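Input record, target 12 of the design panel.
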């Protein structure tokens, strides 16, 4: 969203798909407005607009703070994309709220509904049953004894480490809070999420055989593999074993930057772990196929069943509002600390790969499958030093700064080329480049459409 679009929105006022809120709105109220917008058609909340339609500077707010609040107060149902817009009068935050796949009711009282001018109770005719979440489905033929006590202990230990009060509750209360069990005709039955997190292997094979993950290690670029291992285990145990398999041949390169020693891995542990978790959270659990991991020396490919959501493409995936196909599983993994609460897994992978001189993550999409490719073309030691020294001087880079500097490390680029790399429109791209130029990070060469940008040498 641009500055001009913000001012145009102020002239028009709120509407069916846009809410204007003060920067001082209470977290609970913000959650209700976001839920009301999501319960209608989704839209945008402009945060930092006073009652008179004037901009209040909201620069004191942080994007992670906003997404964390909304995630917590809506029980994991809402993860809006947060966009910072700088205006002449101060910062405005644009919260892009997707349409809810089911009714969201944060806190007590009726579910809210944004009617275009104010919050109202959700109309009865719109209070339809949510579409089925495959990971929330109880399994009537399964029992609590299909959950592995060792895996349940693992989950409790994670909650304890995170200081979660759930760790001190009863076993049944903990399982209910995590969406792992539901009551069916007076008896507690595991859900698909319950088996995915703690099911015994024989129960997984019987009820959720698509939970299998197949790992292939390739010696080169050939189709043949040197090692294959099929894993039918709960997701935490599968993640642990995949870590062991990948680390067995994962190399790191030590690099000294100033007084610090940096280890740059062929495949960063946090990056591929995030990629694997994304595959589990976003895959189609109704499809019979398994997640596949192909480990080549120069790339790691993670393929999962289920295409991208409508409107999302490999080109706009970094900017598109978060969308989770399996909210029950995603919420449980978030409470256990396995996935990002702010829906920033893709951002995290970009940040880690770009700051170490790697290529950004590549997504390949088909109607019924998505493959994430993590490339390992080596690393550019001088670029890693440049980024580290620049951040020491300027402070931590935003993701947009990293995308620009990573593109420029291969040589000068035009504004249009950088806009494509950023997946931004030309105007916000130009403003970003001007800020980086003013900070002494990049230099401009030429004028108009012939203008090209390059990295600036850092002062010694």
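The sequence produced for target 12 reads:
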């Amino acid at each position: 969203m641009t500055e001009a679009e913000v001012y145009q929105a102020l002239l028009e006022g709120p509407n069916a798909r846009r809410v204007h809120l003060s920067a001082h709105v209470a977290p609970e109220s913000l959650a209700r407005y976001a839920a009301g917008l999501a319960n209608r058609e989704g839209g945008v909340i402009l945060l930092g607009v006073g009652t008179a339609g004037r901009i209040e500077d909201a620069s004191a707010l942080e994007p992670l703070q906003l997404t964390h609040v909304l995630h917590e107060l809506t029980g994991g149902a809402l993860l809006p994309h947060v966009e910072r817009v700088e205006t002449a009068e101060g910062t405005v935050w644009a919260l892009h709220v997707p349409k809810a796949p089911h009714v969201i009711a944060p806190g007590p009282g009726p579910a809210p509904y944004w009617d275009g001018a104010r919050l109202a109770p959700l109309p009865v005719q719109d209070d339809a049953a949510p579409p089925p979440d495959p990971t929330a489905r109880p399994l009537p033929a399964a029992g609590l004894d299909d959950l592995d006590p060792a895996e349940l202990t693992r989950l409790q230990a994670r909650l304890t480490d995170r200081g979660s009060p759930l760790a001190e509750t009863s076993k049944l209360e903990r399982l209910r809070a995590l969406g792992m069990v539901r009551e069916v005709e007076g008896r507690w039955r595991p859900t698909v999420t319950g088996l995915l997190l703690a099911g015994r292997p024989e129960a997984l094979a019987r009820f959720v055989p698509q939970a299998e993950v197949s790992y292939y290690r390739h010696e080169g670029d050939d189709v043949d593999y040197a090692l294959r291992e099929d894993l039918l285990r709960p997701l935490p145990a599968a993640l642990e074993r995949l870590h062991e398999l990948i680390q067995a041949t994962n190399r790191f390169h030590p690099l000294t930057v100033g007084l610090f020693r940096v280890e740059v891995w062929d495949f960063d542990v946090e990056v591929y772990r995030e990629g694997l978790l994304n595959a589990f959270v976003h895959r189609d659990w109704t499809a019979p196929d398994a997640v596949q991991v192909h480990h080549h020396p120069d790339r790691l490919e993670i393929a999962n069943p289920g295409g991208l959501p409508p409107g999302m493409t490999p080109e706009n995936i970094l900017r598109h509002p978060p969308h989770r196909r399996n909210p029950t599983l995603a919420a449980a993994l978030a409470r256990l600390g396995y996935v990002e609460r702010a829906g920033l897994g893709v951002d995290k992978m970009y940040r880690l790969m770009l700051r170490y001189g790697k290529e950004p993550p590549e997504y390949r999409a088909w109607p019924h499958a998505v493959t994430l490719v993590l490339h390992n073309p080596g690393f550019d030691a001088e670029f890693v030093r440049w980024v580290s020294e620049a951040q020491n001087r300027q402070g931590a880079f935003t993701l947009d700064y990293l995308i620009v500097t990573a593109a420029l490390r291969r040589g000068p680029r035009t504004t249009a080329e950088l806009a494509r790399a950023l997946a931004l429109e030309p105007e916000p791209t130009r403003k970003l480049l001007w800020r980086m130029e003013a900070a002494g990070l990049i230099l401009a060469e030429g004028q108009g459409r012939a203008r090209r940008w390059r990295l600036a040498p850092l002062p010694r």
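The first helix runs from residue 3 to 12.
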